[in-house]
Amino acid sequence: MQFFGGSEISPSPPVPTATGNNVHMMYIFNRNGVCLFYREWNRPLRTLNPQQDHKLMFGLLFSLKSFTAKMDPTSVDKGNLGVPQLPGQGCSFHSFRTNTYKLSFTETPSGIKIILVTHPRTGDLRDPLKYIYNLYVEYVVKNPLYSPGTPIRCELFNTSLDQYVRSIL
Questions:
Q1: DSSP reduced 3-state for 35
Q2: Looking at beta carbons, which pairs linking 29-32 to residues 24 or more positions away fall under 8 Å?
Q3: Is the pLDDT assigned to residue 81 strictly greater than 70?
Q4: Which residues, at least 6 apart from 114, have a Cβ–Cβ distance to it below 8 Å?
Q5: Is 164 in contact with 135 (CB distance < 8 Å)?
Q6: What is the DSSP letter of 107?
Q7: How far apart (Å, rounded) are the C-alpha atoms in residues 16 and 167?
Q8: Per residue in 137-146, is it b (16+ CB within 10 Å) or e — as a string?
Q9: Which residue of 69, 85, 104, 112 pairs with 95 in a disulfide if CB–CB is 3.0 to 4.6 A?
Q10: Rounded distance between C-alpha atoms, residue 23 and residue 127, angstroms
């Protein structure tokens, strides 16, 4: 599998190895906080309208990124808040868990943020998030009909994503 660069999608996507892999929902945000994609698979309760939900999720991500950068005991340089970091650069978070869900997160160098909300017993989802990013590159970014910054409406991406998420449920 290629993460940043390359154009090949792995024929056998990574599958998380933990029990209880129920994916509830997924978000894709651009670097400006615009929700480009939102999908629910298993969300039993809706408490907010979609716009409020997206704003709260992006605000949560921004706050967690700021918190982890400011609390980093190994770095004097706290960096500019909101600026994407390269993988392995600086202090960042990958997930957090509550008693009812787990939020897993990845951010690409271009500022694309992908969030999966799953069952709390779900294992490490960094490889599946990388695979989802590769689907995004193949079916959205390389699509000549897609205008960057607009909501994602690509049937091939939706179908491939749904198949992959069903495989990790």
A1: strand
A2: 29/54, 29/57, 29/58, 29/61, 29/112, 29/113, 29/115, 30/111, 30/112, 30/113, 30/148, 30/149, 31/82, 31/84, 31/110, 31/111, 31/112, 31/113, 32/111, 32/149
A3: no
A4: 26, 27, 28, 105, 106, 107, 108, 129, 132, 133, 136
A5: yes
A6: E
A7: 10
A8: bbbbeeeeeb
A9: 104
A10: 15
> CATH second-level architecture of 27-42+50-70+84-168?
2-Layer Sandwich (3.30)
- Please state the domain extents for the chain: 27-42+50-70+84-168
How far, CA to CA in Å, does 47 sit from each of 14, 38, 43, 52, 98? 32, 16, 10, 10, 18
Give me the pLDDT at residue 6, please.
Answer: 47
User: Is-above-0.90 flag for pTM?
Assistant: no
- The residue written with tokens 């660069």 in the block is 5
Block residue for tokens 């694309």: 112
Residue 127: strand, helix, or coil: helix
113-156: pLDDT as tens digits: 999 998 898 888 899 999 999 999 999 999 999 888 899 999 99
